[in-house]
Amino acid sequence: MNSIILRAGARLLVAILLVFSVFMLLRGHNVPGGGFIGGLLGAVGFIVYAISCGTAEAREALRYPPENIALVGLGASLLSGLVSMVFGDDPFTGQWLFLGATEDDKGLPLSTVLIFDIGVYLVVMGAILALVFALEEEV
Amino acid sequence: MKSDAAHEAPAKAGQVLSGWLSVAIAAGLFAGFWQALGPVGGGEVLRWSRDWVPSAGISLSFLIDGLSLTFALLITGIGALVMLYSTKYLAGHPHFARFFLYLTLFMASMLGLVLADNLITLFVFWELTSITSYLLIGFTHTSAASRRSALQALLVTGAGGLALLAGMILLGDAAGTYELSEIRLMGDAIREHGLYLPILILFLIGAFTKSAQIPFHFWLPNAMAAPTPVSAYLHSATMVKAGVYLMARIHPTLAETDVWLWTLTIAGASTAVFASFMALKQTDLKQVLAYTTLMALGTLTLFLAADVGYAITAAMTFLIVHSLYKAALFLIAGIIDHETGTREVSKLGGLARFMPVTTAAAALAALSMAGFPPFLGFIGKELKYAGALAVQSEPFLVASAVLLANALMLAVAGVVAFKPFWRGQSATPMTPHEAPWRMLAGPVILAALGALLGIMPDLIAVPLVEPGVKAISNAELQPAELKLWAGVNLPLILSGITIAGGVALYLVHERLRDWLQSAGERAPSFDKGWDSLIDQFKAGAAWQTRVLQSGVMRRYVYTIFATLLIAVGGTLVWTGAFGGIPTVPFADLQMKHWAVVALIIAGAAVTTVTNSRIAAITGLGAVGIGVALIFIIFGAPDVAITQLLVETLVVVLFAVAALRLPLMKPEDGFPNRKLDALIATTIGLIVTAILVTVTDGPIDRRLSDFFESASWTEAFGRNIVNVILVDFRALDTFGEIAVVAVAGVAAWALLKGGKEASK
């Protein structure tokens, strides 16, 4: 679609959507959000970009082929689930590390669960973009 | 017949390594099993077990008793010799390393099969032997005949495997355990059980297909498409004996009934006699040997029918005898093929001058096969007669069948190992010369063993045959003695008749062959029957595809929703679960509820009535947003956000796809609008009825309570939906994202692939 207003607006909108998608991903464990929603938002961001500026430019902005992103995400989720076996737990048992935790503050919580959710994010975004880009280029 | 041996070419170091590594593995395993000879000969049974799927009673348990040790030694011993042989036979073959991989995998599967002490474990290895043998038969994959033979073997043995699995599950059910060492003690209970007959039939289908008993025999001669070492290993010494092994292993549980006795007697005897005649009919060395293998399998089945010490001892002994001489003869056939360029008996003659060592090995193996003293084959034959005369079914008939088969075997031995070496002149494509040592080692060692064990039968009697008979009979039967001279008795007289008859048959074998070949042309062919069976299957598949796969989206949707309608709606009506229309508390409804309902109804109305695709898509989006609003009202923000985003994406995707679709015209848009409306309305009503029914009953809150209480304390998250997704049920989520990823990649590949092809 060739519209200068859309293009100018899209740049702003896409940036906000992408930051918001990561925000939704990270906050998801305690308030509404998570990898699935984040991934959908990220995909919407790039789709808006693709509609306004063309898929070639969107692909360039994405840097990696979306289908690869999906597969990397799948691998990350799988690995994050297998980590627990190293510690002698069943697969897909969450492993937690509370950085700088004190008596009354849990500090910065890092976990395999977060990696799992990032994997979900990448799979959802990558798979949808693979489909949409291919469809758009088909037209 | 074209030679399947590869032409010599300089081999790569990695390839050479793969060959020697395989030989070393096999030889090492053989040495390992050798260590078990002492304990097993002393009556011990070695067991090893590890849980696999404990909830289903499936364990990785293995045992070594006389029966499995005999098989294990044959598999690894002959395996090592065959692999050594193959390092030379296939030298320079482009798929040299692949061949050794297949062969080693096959050996491992076969070992697992004979050592397994759990029915399901046994089945897994049973199937693995089918798969590896498929790969080996089809090794020359550029040849259509090879591929057909491989597929035929796989389908026949695979179908038998499925029957076997069903039989094993029934047996496990009847016995309450899958452990063979427990089941073998429950013979009486199983034989009394109502499921005995189905179990027996299913087991025998499995065993008969694997061991090529009539009417499933046709795949085995075709399997000769494999390279000769494979034929020597799989289709004489090991895999085809898996069925025999199964019958022996299950003997304590299923034998001792009239059905067992007669089924095995008839199948075994007819296979043995039929195969002996067929063997004489062939002119290709490998085909001759293939049919003699069938004869041996028939004989083994015949003796496992009975439940007397002599018969079982005969089976155990003949098993060893046959493996030794048959592997030797197959390898010799390979040598002849390799060094002369042909396997046609009519073209071979006078090879003794060129290949003295091969000739000697062939003579030793053939004398054992023909049953001359002092070879092990003689003892095997004496025991067969003694066993045949002792069976409970019809000693006279069984002995006659064995006598006829043995006499024919003697004639075949002459065709295979006497005529090519001593009679006439050779007219072969290549000038014959002696084989290299790696190819001679196998036949010489195996043939020499046949002679050595004949003179000193105690070497195998105590550690293998006697424990083997005890294993087959649950230690209820007394094994017969293995000795060369048992005095002048009926078996000895029968041996004399066999030799006289066999020599006579050999002298007339060419005329007999001509007669058999002309008779064979008129007889119905199992192989052709197989082809027409496969053709019918394909026609059936094509028919049902035509009926079910219209390729029209609208019809698929009809089918899916009609099925839903009948299955779910029918269930609701039939079970009377639908409690009737509930009273709606209209007074409690607020303005926002009415607004959402109005939005959804308006969206649905636009979607169904409009003639514009864009309007329909937008209407559908409105319905989706209405549903998302409902989620928000009732406190499920995560679901609402997801719903909104998905709705947005669906609209985008539709909009992109719509550009590709032809413009919709009102006149041809909806041919069955009334039917569409009927289906849609009914589905809507049914879904409503389900929702009403579900929410009407009490809701089980145990899971919700657990998640609510454990979400923060155990998983450190306050958003229960997310905690469930990424922690409590992460495995489910992983399955779902795997589906998402595969769907995305598949759609991408389809769209891109189509583009590449159309360029």
Task: Write a structural description.
The complex is a heterodimer of chains A (139) and B (759). By secondary structure, chain A is mostly helical. Chain A has one domain. Chain A contains five helices and two strands, in the order ααααββα. The longest helix of chain A has 27 residues. In chain A, 45% of the residues are buried. Chain B has 759 residues and is mainly α. Chain B has 32 helices and two strands. Chain B has a two-stranded antiparallel sheet. In chain B, α9 runs antiparallel to α12.
Short description:
Chain A is mainly alpha-helical and 139 residues long. Helix content of chain A is 71%, strand content 6%.
Number of strands of chain A: 2
Distance between the termini of chain A: 12 Å
Largest interface, chains and sizes: A-B, 53 and 41 residues
Spatial order of strands in the largest sheet of chain B: 1-2
Strand content of chain B: under 5%
Task: Determine the structural class of chain B based on helices, strands and strand pairing.
Answer: mainly alpha
**Annotation field: number of helices of chain B:** 32
What is the average per-residue confidence, as pLDDT of chain A, rounded to a whole number? 87
CA-based shape of chain A = elongated
Sheet-strand content of chain A, in percent, reads 5-15%
Q: Could you estimate the helical fraction of the residues of chain B in percent?
A: over 70%
Strand order of the largest sheet of chain A: 1-2
Distance between the termini of chain B: 45 Å
State the low-pLDDT regions of chain A, or none: none
* Average pLDDT level of chain B: 85
Task: Give the C-alpha Rg of chain B.
Answer: 34 Å
Order of helices and strands of chain A: HHHHEEH
- What is the number of helical segments of chain A per DSSP (H or I, 4+ residues)? 5
Categorize the overall geometry of chain B: elongated
